[in-house]
Amino acid sequence: MGEVLAQLIPVALAAALSTVPIMATLFILLSERRKVTALPFVSGWVIGTAAGLTIATTAAQSLPGRPRQFSSLIDNLEIVVGGAFVLFGVITLFRHSRGSTSKRPSRLEGIGSLGPLPAFGIGLALNLRPKALLLVAAAGLAISGAPPFVDDTLFLIAVYTAIATSTVVAPTLATVFFPDRMEPRLVAARDWFTAHGTAVTGVVMILVGVVVLAAGISG
């Protein structure tokens, strides 16, 4: 269990630092309709994360083969996924170095004006991004290395979901209870992520890729 958590937690942290859901959350919380949009969006994000990881874990645990073959297959898949993380991170940093660092993602600015159901749907849909799919694939492969007990699997899925969604859940709940205190912090966070979020994403993806690669190579 300890080895699985050591591999799972960095992947969950990478998901937590994902720029798109964080920026979407900030735009929602700074909008006039945050009271009707924020909680549905968060619910969609959390449910989608847990459901995606459950599917990925079930698929990984259902891979055919005898125990030794299964372990070898998981290692090979981890090498492929880890390599994809590193490549994704390098491409992200390259694009960041050639692009503007102060331009806000205009496709997200209007998210705060949506109703509850569309916000919930977007929260779910953000889990279908290529990066999000890579993250749950890596997490599912990590969990598949744990003993195949339902309680252990559910615990690991809960740990990943709690960490991965913390950067969306925590500011949302804080804003619900302390809106006046949170507003200047939300503005500062939005401006910081606008300038540096892409670079953070690239670096984190490379680091996570190295972790997943090392796990696959070491077996």
Describe the structure.
It contains ten helices and no strands. The chain has 219 residues and is mainly α. The chain has one domain. Helix 3 runs antiparallel to helix 9.
Briefly summarize what is shown.
The protein is mostly helical and 219 residues long.
The outline comes out as globular
Distance between the termini: 15 Å
| Discrete helix count | 10
In the residues, how many domains can be counted?
1
Rg is 18 Å
Given as residue ranges, the uncertain stretches (5+ residues, pLDDT < 50) are: none
Largest sheet: none
What percent of residues are in strands? under 5%
SS-derived structural category: mainly alpha
Helix content: over 70%
- How would you classify the quaternary structure? single chain
> How many DSSP-defined strands?
0
Q: Would you tell me the overall average pLDDT?
A: 86
N-to-C series of helices and strands: HHHHHHHHHH
